[in-house]
Specification:
By secondary structure, this protein is α+β, with helices and mostly antiparallel strands. The protein is built from five helices and five strands, in the order αββααααβββ. About 30% of the residues lie in helices and about 35% in strands. A five-stranded antiparallel sheet has the order 2-1-5-4-3.
């Protein structure tokens, strides 16, 4: 994806996330949603109030609770080192599927990660 480094995202004022042209979901080590930006609200058709504080992989987007997605995130957390991994993933929404490019990030200094979502071309 080649976009903003996690170090920069971790220090952003969260209100700036709504200005970015891609989805941002900030999660803690357990996958609990801390931030959910406007772009992601529009893609997923979910208001942030429905997602904040919930477990992303099981309560918000259960289709991501697979080894390819959640497993990679859990592995990054277990390694306890700053990482970024990319993958293409099909999000399954009611009535449709959408291919997206995902950047999974984790940084142990802040004990949180970001799931960056961009529509695939």
């Amino acid at each position: 994806m080649g976009i903003i480094p996690i170090e920069n995202l971790a220090t952003f004022d969260r209100s700036r996330f709504d200005e970015l042209p891609f989805g941002i979901i900030e999660v803690d080590r357990d996958g609990r949603v801390l931030t959910y930006n406007r772009w992601e609200e529009e893609l997923a058709g979910r208001h942030r109030e429905e997602t904040l504080g919930k477990l992303f992989f099981s309560e918000v987007a259960p289709c991501t609770g697979v080894a390819e997605f959640e497993g990679r995130f859990r592995s990054m957390v277990a390694r306890n080192e700053s990482r970024r991994e990319e993958l293409d993933f099909v999000f399954r929404f009611p009535g449709e599927e959408r291919l997206v490019n995902i950047s999974l990030t984790w940084d142990p200094r802040w004990q949180r990660g970001f799931i960056l979502v961009r529509a695939s071309q």
